[in-house]
Amino acid sequence: MDRMREGLEGVQGQRVGERAWRQAQLKVSHGGTGLLAQNALVAAAYLGCMCMCMRVMKQRAHMQGFTQGVGTGGQLPMQLALEGAHECLASLYRDSEEPGEREVIVELTDLDTAHKHAQKEFTSKVSRSQRLEVLREAEDEQAVARLLSASGYAAGMWLQGNLTDRSMRMSGQVFMVAMKLRLGMACGLVCPHQSCAVCGEMVDAQGWHHLTCSGAQLIARHDRFVAQLASMMRAAVGRGKVHVEMVGTLEEGAGSKRMDIVVDSGDGGEMTQIDAAVCTPMASSYLQAAQEAGGAAALRQSSKHSKYDRYVPEGSTFIAAVVEAVGAWGSEMQEWWQAVLGTLAAEAQEAGEMGDSAASQFANSWLPRLAVGLQRGNALAIIHRCRRDRVAMGKSSGERS
Length: 401
Ligand SMILES: [Zn+2]
Prior knowledge:
- The protein is of the alpha+beta class.
- It has 2 domains: 37-136, no CATH class; 141-401, no CATH class.
- The protein is 52% helix and 6% strand.
- The chain has 13 helices and 4 strands.
- Strands 1-2-3-4 form a 4-stranded mixed beta sheet.
- The protein is globular, with a radius of gyration of 25 Å.
- The two termini are 50 Å apart.
- The site of zinc ion (ZN) has 6 residues, from loops.
- Residues 196, 198-199, 201, 209, 213 line the site of zinc ion.
């Protein structure tokens, strides 16, 4: 694991602190980077494997002598290792507050009665416990907001893209900024304790301020996000049915509000009006809501509804497509996405293809692409603002001298 940590430090160009390293060792879906702590999983994997073996052995009674040794004071060499692994797992389940979870672990003498997928169950129990521990030990509310968002729906998909696909490649700097945003590390570009050139507020070392303060780069991130959503919808429902409005061309008048994307099925059926946004859970305006998973996105969703619901024409559905800057999708965006996948699956089935595999192929292709696009937008926003701040600082120090 030390080698892996060194590798991560090499990529980041700086030391990875203890907290960040513990997060990095979580599964990607739990907010980590998938550099799993194998030593922690070994006991669970071993016990799960023994459960499967025992079942087969008992079924073939000729191994009876072997199985009788287990858990009954037998002297087999594996006995101690097995007892250790069992004690380790049992203590995790003993502390569990999840209903029904404690029944998953069986007595050492009854290993053959364990769940069919015991190995997977045990290892994922260890992973879940590790995630809870990292959350419990979070240093402040901003860390909680970030960790919850990092493990939200689709948040880590930029780490799971197909690297042979050019559209999913990230430059070294973009990758580094995205990784540091995820792990809560100083981004190494911002001079902290310095006031923002736009709003005068103090900026933080992580670059979070640059993801919330108004500026051209955030509009660019929004427009890029909208363009990608529109491409995804075109791929899903057909080119001619998706209309896109960029922020620069929005007309907001007394009785109108043009949405970012309008999907018109063209057959006189329901239209879908989509307005997209990216919010930062660590920003002060979202921090309280972000102490619950998806809270920041939910807050932004409801503010969009209270602003725009009255402009939505009859027979149209309005969707507030909100994602959090760390990557988690808001609930409405997730529901919309599931509906898109459902339609695709149904259409494929009608055409005599495998519906589920068509939908999962679409998801595997678009989820990483959207996630990479978002992280690229974040990184460019931070990089450009820092560059501008440095130029401004150079000028002001030049004036002084
Ligand atoms: Zn600012």
